[in-house]
Amino acid sequence: MQIMWGRWALLTVAMVTGGWGIMRLATPTEEQFYAKLSPELKRQMDEVRRRREGNAEMVSKLEAAAKKGEIIWADSMDPKSGRKV
């Protein structure tokens, strides 16, 4: 039995493309998803976003310190003097 490779390739590409298209149509954007959340879940999402911004700030500080060759363990205060170390 001879396999028709062209037909097989065409059907495979059509199935993969169709699946991708259905996924694109059915998956909401981040804005659409956020708009449908309840007020409590929106508050939780806003808190997660604020934490991410704080993490991004720490990453930028670490990158700047790495360029200078410094070591940063954490932003902390000296327990005796109360000043930033």
From TrEMBL:
Family label: Belongs to the CBP4 family.
One Pfam family this sequence matches: CBP4
Keywords: Chaperone, Membrane, Mitochondrion, Mitochondrion inner membrane, Signal, Transmembrane, Transmembrane helix
Xref: InterPro entries: Cbp4
Gene Ontology CC entries for this record: mitochondrial inner membrane
Subcellular location(s) per record: Mitochondrion inner membrane
Signal peptide start-end: 1-21
Protein name: Cytochrome b mRNA-processing protein 4
Protein's job: Essential for the assembly of ubiquinol-cytochrome c reductase. It has a direct effect on the correct occurrence of the Rieske protein, core 4, core 5 and apocytochrome b.
Primary localization class, coarse: mitochondrion
Its membrane topology: Single-pass membrane protein
Record's keyword annotation contains Chaperone: yes
Organism annotation: Kockovaella imperatae
